[in-house]
Amino acid sequence: MAQSLFLMKGLMEAVRDTSYDVRVRLLDVQQIGPELALKWDDGREDFIPLERLRKRCPCAGCNGEMDMLGNVYKVPARPLGLHAFEIRSIRAVGGYALQPTWGDMHSTGLYSFDYLRRVAEATDESM
Ligand SMILES: [Zn+2]
Question: What are the residues facing 46 on neighbouring strands?
């Protein structure tokens, strides 16, 4: 029983992610050296290494696409170039996500605020 509740909770989290019901607002975003500094309206500040952020790019091309049965189809990882861990610009999308354009012009990754906070909490080994 406990396990099915847990699965249900996971499902609801996923639904919440896709409906963009954002509870926190991003007040400020700055690149500080090799890190992205994020300031949230709940008082939290995060510093995410750009390299980690790029390696967690959530776009289908980097992350693989999941079908209805949960199978992930992953494109073979291309080696990231010299400028892949630099940010050229960042666009805010609809108040729920950031869309960075990387130094190698990759810009299809939409980082939802929830996702950014999870990447910030993760260590480089755990994701
Ligand atoms: Zn990507």
Answer: 38
Give me the CATH number covering residue 15. 3.30.2020.30
CA of 64 to the centre of ligand 1 (A): 9
Residue 125 structure tokens: 């080994």
**127 CA → ligand 1 middle, Å:** 15
CA of 100 to the centre of ligand 1 (A): 10
The residue count of the chain comes to: 127
Tell me which DSSP letter residue 18 carries.
Answer: H
Could you tell me the pTM of the whole model? 0.72
Q: Are 27 and 43 in contact (CB under 8 A)?
A: no
One-letter amino acid of 76: P
| pLDDT digits 0-9 by tens, 25-44 | 999 999 999 999 999 999 99
Structural domain for 103, as ranges? 2-121
Cα 4 to ligand 1 centroid, rounded to whole Å? 33
